Amino acid sequence: MATALFYHPVSLLHDTGIHHPESPRRIEKILSILSETDFDALDRREATVIDTAKLLWAHTGDHVDRVFRAIPDTGYVAIDGDTVICKDSGEAALRAAGGICDAVDAVLNGEVNNAFCLSRPPGHHAERDRAMGFCLFCNPAIGAYQARNEHGLQKIAVIDFDVHHGNGTQDVFWNDPDMFYGSTHGSPLFPGTGSEGEVGVAGNILNCPLPSGAGSYEFRKVIEDNIFPGVRDFKPELIIVSAGFDAHREDPLASLNLEDEDFGWVSKRIVELSLELCQGRLVSILEGGYDTGALSRSVALHVRALMNATD
Ligand SMILES: [Zn+2]
Fold first, then answer.
1. β-pair type (3-7, 43-46)
2. What value does the mean pLDDT take over residues 170-187?
3. Which SUPFAM superfamilies does the record match to this protein (predicted)?
């Protein structure tokens, strides 16, 4: 079986303004690399629009209403200092959340081995009742609830290696002992959460902050010594990855020093962990990564690692 790639071109129409780092150029550059013959074996699928009722698995009705009421007919609206939307942002967000549900369906129905969701806007900063940090809806958490509510799985783990802490996923999972969130991230850094003392209602949150300047050695050590043992103890039936690539040395928004190869390594190790714990059930979704060259090279290694699980 193949690796699925979920995508929809409306993700390119989510326009955040000419100087915004979370731009359509990120997706364009990734699509360019994934068009190479090395990636011919990908099972390319269109991300569908999520049923808006499913957004309420992770969010308050007030939050969902506020997002859609804010969408302008023309121009831009800034929900906060970082989070900018335009007229197509609503559909892009609905297909980002829909795409991860589609990916969960495809993996759990046995149609594909694993899946990558190439989407914008990202999701892991969107809290239960608040959009922030370029994120409108918490895609990884919604994907986890798709697995529980539509497929009957009980325990789902999200692994997040974006350089920023996924305060949104943590917030949604905080009181749910059967949802696990494990994160490596730079600290101090936006959004300011993610200390080791934040553990959730039942030890189901595992935060591993890394100091500014940390690189390959520190990252690999905390993945092997902290994140993976936490996931193993939790015994998930599905692993979802919040795949952010902004811990790269070349990224302009943070100060960790990972190289392309570190993203290839962590991707391969997460594939191996999924084979060890949950029959290889693995769904990954794009979060951050703002140097388009480093981002696209690193995503290529990530997707290649997912495809190699099927070789
Ligand atoms: Zn980030």
1. parallel
2. 98
3. Arginase/deacetylase
Segment 248-255 shows an average pLDDT of 96
Strands (E) across 105-244 are located at 114-117, 156-160, 179-186, 205-210, 238-243
Ligand 1 (ion): which residues have CB within 5 A? 162, 164, 244, 246, 288
125 as an active site residue: the answer is yes
User: Cα of 47 to ligand 1 centre, how many Å?
Assistant: 22
Cα end-to-end distance, the chain, whole Å: 9
How many whole angstroms from 44 Cα to the centroid of ligand 1?
25
pTM, full prediction = 0.98
DSSP 12-77: GT----TT-SS-HHHHHHHHHHHTSGGGTT-EEEEPPPPPGGGGGGTS-HHHHHHHHHH--SSS-E
How remote is the CA of residue 289 from the centroid of ligand 1, in Å?
6
Active-site entry in 8, 14, 59, 125: 125
Distance 1 CA to ligand 1 centre (A): 31
> Which domains can be identified in the chain, with CATH numbers?
3-308 (3.40.800.20)
Taking the centre of ligand 1 as the mean of its atom positions, its distance from the CA of residue 169, in whole angstroms, is 13
**Spatial separation of the C-alpha atoms in residues 215 and 58, rounded to whole Å:** 33
